[in-house]
Amino acid sequence: MPSELATMDAVRYRTAGGPEVLELESIDRPTPGHHGVLVEVEAAAVNPVDAKVRMRRDPPRPTTTGSDLAGTVAAVGDGVTDFEVGDRVVATGLHTARFSGGSFAECASVPRDLVARLPDGVSFESGAAVALVGVTAWRAFVDHAGLEPGGSAFVHGGNGGVGHVAIGLATAMGASVACSAKPTYADVLTDLGAETVVDYDCDDLVAAVTDEFGHADVVLDHMPETYLGTDVELAAFAGDIVVIAGPEGTVPDASAARSKELDVHMMSMSNLATHRELPPMAPILEKLGRLLADGRLEVLIDRRYDLDQAAEAHRAVLEESVLGKIIVVP
Ligand SMILES: NC(=O)c1ccc[n+]([C@@H]2O[C@H](COP(=O)([O-])OP(=O)(O)OC[C@H]3O[C@@H](n4cnc5c(N)ncnc54)[C@H](OP(=O)(O)O)[C@@H]3O)[C@@H](O)[C@H]2O)c1
User: How many domains does the chain have?
Assistant: First the structure.
């Protein structure tokens, strides 16, 4: 997109609802703002949170959907000295209440603290794809659970956006990893580093995992309403369970969890965009970029949509089984 244009395309919604509330509009191109970076978006990734936020409540003002982006810097605001026009960058966290300008647009203005440099060897699509899910897996394993080289992790839903990057990250950290997934994904998840892949529909998930893999130091759970009890059984003594989603979070057998000295962590990567007392977002994005550039981490792209197909992308991310990430290309 020529940078002198005053308007741009963006996918916005004004009321809460299904994917049909998303509309492609021509709106004023944003300015970077104080401590902001204006990015020409080359790729945006689709996340379940984008659809959940869209459904939850009417936004206070027309809101551009999308959390993740990768692109090139088009302008920098006052106080930004470490980025310049033309830099390749990645950012995430744009879905939080702090923003009305998300990433499904030709340009987005992002606070400097959410922006990191994207290495030359990493495509824009890979950068956008890894952002939110990579930060989530990083926070779960590194910041919350303290996963160590030689340790072990179990990931529910290994083919999902978070799941497949979590497998790769645990492997890159020198931990062994097992996951659940539909059998059709077993080979590719093994290639990503999973030592054991178990069908989540099998009769006895705990036996299937522990017989082959053993108990896990860290269990990563995005469906606690179904799996918190299972997590307690899957976890090793003094292990950690990290819960990243779900409306309910009560451990059904708390005495079993106590007997095993388990720690249960509840986390949301979104907090990094809003709480200054938490670790900053950009350094994590930088490290993820380095892992991708070095070939130590892989992010998989299931499919791509154009900006005018954003509603279909929002539908698919909640309703379809994907291997890795869905990308939207402005
Ligand atoms: N707290 C945070 O910071 C944070 C960050 C990122 C994501 N999240 C949340 O975490 C969840 C996953 O995100 P995502 O981006 O990875 O979503 P995703 O790409 O849609 O992946 C969902 C995964 O769940 C699997 N799954 C479905 N039914 C299952 C079952 N019965 N047992 C085990 N796995 C099952 C799916 O497998 P199939 O493909 O076979 O259906 C898929 O692997 C979402 O709710 C998201 O909002 C939270």
Answer: 2
